[in-house]
UniProtKB/TrEMBL annotation:
Source organism of this protein record: Nocardioides simplex
Annotated InterPro entries: Imm33_dom (IPR018689)
Residue intervals of the Immunity protein Imm33 domain: 378-455
Short name of one Pfam family: Imm33
The protein's name in its UniProt record: DUF2185 domain-containing protein
Length: 461
């Protein structure tokens, strides 16, 4: 995760940059997914822009509108993630789920409304129509993602983007607690929830929707791109492939910068081939030299891991969430007179912190450690016996798990066992998590009533 631990400042508020809009509308979204934003064009994706499977998935959805004498009231009762205002966007098939829910709502409340298919609505037009209905702010969906947009910010003026971090003495030191656009000065008297912004690439951007329509994502300027990788085996992979070493805001990555697209394709193929032939594990990132690359490069070099870029006569401000991916709540902070002071995204909300703790435990903590699973467990027969011995290395949990459906031949063959992360085992049997917390040595058997009962531990194999 990308975050740095700064010294405790006298004023905890930090500057991330500025944002300037021409439209008086402010959009917050994950700009790592900006190549999905259609702007004023139809959201139907042309063949060849993405891989065939993704293109088919994006084009499978359709847009629909709730119409009829009671359309507004009926739409307000639907309570479906795909429905915003009177519209259901990007719904696959014939929108049967929405139709059924609408019929039930109309029957329950005595309303007259129906669902009508409409032409796919450009994403910029979605912003206009949704804000016409809810100018204070609303979520706006685009191809499975969604951002948050508000109307009524000052146009043609540089608005500061500021933030505060978590407690510098706490476990989340360095991560953002909240980040906001300062629309006006004043003391916050109240706050109104707008919705959630969905993040899939660990980054966010405040932007004018019009500027975003001019954002160049995925089309490298001058035909150049970077390919970088990092992770547990980064040094070894770099040595094997002759990759360079780079520092990005205190984080080490390896790879190649400023290479032609043909060379990046060749290097990417060599990297994939090496990873497939070895047990090496790294994360990779392809970075075409587009507008994303321009602002991301500045973000990685900035102490605040944020940056401002000029786009289409306005300015946008991008920053890393410091919490990775997720859904983050967005608020309007209001003054005593009800005027808008801030548009704020709460990154360190309690539910976000709890989710981050859980993800760290699943992917980097005790539940990421490996168990020896028998063929029966791997087949999906479920765990019935567990044995825990002293772990032999950092990745070893010490657990051996059995289903009881294994043949004697399988039990006698050490090669039939599979190493499985504990997190995968608790997916089908959540009650295993409490058992996995038992220190070694230990052994358990599932009783007829479903409980886990301690049993004597056999000698270590």
């Amino acid at each position: 995760m990308r975050f740095r631990k700064p010294a405790r400042p006298a004023d905890p508020t930090e500057s991330l940059g500025v944002v300037e809009t021409r439209s008086g509308e402010l959009l917050l979204l994950d700009f790592g997914c900006s190549e999905l934003w259609s702007g004023e064009a139809s959201p139907v994706v042309e063949e060849g822009r993405f891989d065939p499977e993704l293109t088919a998935s994006l084009n499978r959805g359709g847009d629909h509108e709730v119409v009829g004498p009671d359309a507004e009231r009926a739409a307000g009762h639907l309570d479906l993630a795909s429905v915003h205002g009177r519209y259901a966007f990007d719904v696959p098939g014939d929108a049967g789920v929405v139709r059924e829910r609408l019929a039930a709502v109309c029957a329950e409340h005595g309303l007259q409304a129906e669902l009508r298919p409409i032409d796919r609505m450009p994403h910029r037009e979605r912003v206009r129509r949704l804000l016409d209905r809810a100018p204070a702010g609303t979520e706006v969906p685009f191809h499975g993602m969604w951002g948050v947009v508000v109307r009524g910010v000052p146009a043609g003026r540089a608005l500061p983007v500021r933030g505060v971090r978590m407690d510098p003495e706490g476990p989340d030191a360095g991560r953002w607690r909240s980040v906001w656009v300062e629309v006006a000065e004043g003391d916050v008297a109240s706050s109104e929830a707008i919705g959630y912004v969905l993040v899939d690439r660990a980054r966010l951007m405040f932007a004018d929707p019009d500027a975003l329509s001019s954002w160049n994502a995925g089309e490298p300027k001058e035909g150049l791109a970077d390919l970088v990788f990092w992770g547990r085996d980064g040094d070894a992979v770099a040595a094997h492939l002759g990759a360079e070493r780079f520092d990005e805001a205190g984080h080490t990555v390896h790879g190649w910068r400023d290479r032609s697209l043909d060379e990046v394709r060749r290097l990417g193929a060599a990297l994939r081939e090496h990873l497939a032939a070895s047990s090496a594990k790294v994360a990779t990132d392809y970075r075409p030299h587009d507008d994303d690359h321009r602002i991301l490069t500045a973000m990685r070099e900035s102490p605040s891991e944020s940056a401002t870029a000029d786009v289409a006569g306005g300015r946008v401000c991008g920053f890393f969430t410091s919490w990775g991916d997720g859904a983050f709540p967005v608020y309007r902070d209001l003054g005593v007179d009800g005027g808008l002071l801030r548009v704020r995204v709460e990154l360190g909300a309690p539910e976000i912190v709890a989710r981050a703790r859980r993800m760290e435990e699943l992917w980097f903590g005790s539940l990421a450690k490996l168990a020896i699973a028998s063929p029966g467990v791997v087949r999906g027969d479920g765990v019935r016996w567990l044995e825990r011995y002293a772990p032999r290395n950092e990745q070893d949990s010490g657990w051996c798990v059995y289903a009881g459906t294994e043949t004697q031949e399988e039990l006698d063959d050490p090669g039939s066992a599979t190493l499985v992360p504990l997190r995968d085992l608790i997916k089908g049997q959540p009650d295993l998590e409490a058992v996995f917390a038992t220190p070694a040595p230990a052994a358990f058997e599932r009783a007829d009533d479903g409980s886990w009962q301690p049993i004597p531990l056999p000698e270590e194999p």
